Amino acid sequence: MPKRKREFWYISEIRPSLGRVDIVVTVIRIQSLKKFFRGDEIHRVAEVLVGDKTGVIVLVVWDDLIDKIKEKETYIIRNLRPRIYRNQMRVICTKDSTIEVAPFRIPLREVNIATRIE
After folding, report:
1. Is residue 35 part of a domain?
2. What pTM was estimated for this model as a whole?
């Protein structure tokens, strides 16, 4: 029987070697939003702290996807790339990534915020 691809990953299971991952997370805080020029175009990038019951991670979101995110909401985010940047695990949205509001909520009290020390 062929091995079935896993649909969603918990944050504690994400590793840089995984390739693309899909996650269900609650947005804790939008940490930074920056604008910059690349050629003649203006681009935006945001770092968003997201979490689930196993931990928290920084989500890097680009351009139009930023407008889809609000704090304290739960989202299904697909086609993310796990990467390490400055000794910190992150998941990065790519041009193929999608963000949709989850049909359920993960309350902030159920998010394991204690796994990240700022």
Report:
1. yes
2. 0.87
